[in-house]
Design goal:
single chain; Rossmann fold; five-stranded parallel sheet; two-stranded antiparallel ribbon; 14 helices
Length: 332
């Protein structure tokens, strides 16, 4: 690709990504700190990728998603997952109408742009598989009819890492459908002081979000994200990282062999490349640099690496393994 093309592409991306700053400003009216979470939600939005959020209660997961949907002027739906939830509670069902003597489709809460699946690991497998069809196929089957879901369609699922009683572990196949798994930590003392002040100061806090972007803008931006230039060296770098999770001994990481049960699937390579492009887009750049790949790597891979009993016994986490790989694989 010629330098002049890169220059033109850069200018185009600069224009197409102008709304990013508006979104950050608008969500910042309500969300204090948690920049990492907001940025990752935007990555999901720009890449049609679903996001799994893991964090303790009270860390503004629901508030962040609701705020973002208001800023994008999109339809928001929250589903609280419980052990007695049925697939029909999510996708909808056929209701008999005695006046017209026929069955009519009543659509469920899945028919929205932003779906918050709260505490997804509390629902049984049957419900999770109904959600899986919607996530993967972006359509829902009720009775004999198939209904397309409106774009943008984004599932943001939360799970609480401390309460394991009464929960159902998500199957690997479903976890792999999430493009990113984001871990959310506590705010800093300064941020928490600001959160406390804002909540005590104004009863209407969090309700004054203006729609600064339209859903069409997001769909346009998705096309731009795919145009972001990625050099072949960066592609090889991504492949090296993913292949190092499968065959660590090929990358001078022989000691990791006993710690990794299984590595990232081809979906990991696709997601890492796409997330790196979207990250470059958020930074308002028309090309991907190695730092983009490294920034999104943990969120793309942490749920795609299976640990052995040995790793768990030694308290070694997916993050430790990803860090070792990033430190060892040669950067282009």
């Amino acid at each position: 690709m010629h330098a002049i093309d890169i220059e033109a592409l850069n200018q185009q991306i600069l224009i197409d990504s102008a709304f990013v700053e508006k979104l950050y400003t608008e969500t910042g009216k309500v969300i204090v700190g948690q920049d990492h979470m907001i940025e990752r939600l935007m990555l999901g939005l720009l890449t049609r990728g679903h996001v799994l959020l893991e964090g303790l209660p009270g860390l503004a997961k629901t508030l962040a998603i609701k705020t973002l949907s208001q800023a994008v002027n999109a339809k928001f739906s929250r589903i609280q997952f419980t052990p007695d939830l049925l697939p029909a509670d999510i996708i909808g069902t056929m209701i008999y109408n005695p006046n017209e003597n026929e069955f009519k489709v009543r659509k469920g809460p899945i028919f929205a742009n932003f779906i918050l699946a709260d505490e997804i690991n509390r629902a049984p497998a049957k419900v999770q598989s109904a959600l899986l069809e919607a996530m993967q196929e972006r359509q829902v089957t009720i009775g004999v009819e198939t209904h397309r879901l409106e774009e943008p369609f984004l599932v943001l699922a939360t799970q609480n890492p401390i309460e394991q009683e009464g929960t159902y572990a998500l199957p690997e196949a479903q976890v792999d459908r999430f493009m990113l798994k984001v871990k959310i930590g506590y705010p800093t003392k300064v941020e928490e002081q600001e959160i406390m002040r804002r909540n005590l100061g104004d009863e209407d806090f969090g309700r004054k979000i203006d729609p600064v972007v339209q859903p069409e803008d997001i769909l346009r931006a998705r096309k731009s994200v795919r145009k972001v230039y990625m050099d072949e060296k960066i592609e090889r770098y991504i492949l090296d990282i993913v292949f190092a999770t499968r065959n660590p001994s090929d990358y001078r990481l022989k000691d990791l062999q006993a710690l990794i049960n299984y590595g990232g699937s081809p979906r990991a390579s696709i997601s890492l490349a796409l997330a790196a492009k979207a990250y470059a887009f958020l930074k308002r750049r028309g090309y991907v640099i190695p730092e983009d790949v490294r920034s999104v790597c943990a969120d793309v891979l942490r749920h795609r690496i299976g640990l052995t009993y040995e790793a768990e016994a030694e308290n070694i986490t997916q993050e430790d393994i990803i860090q070792r790989i990033l430190n060892t694989v040669e950067v282009p």
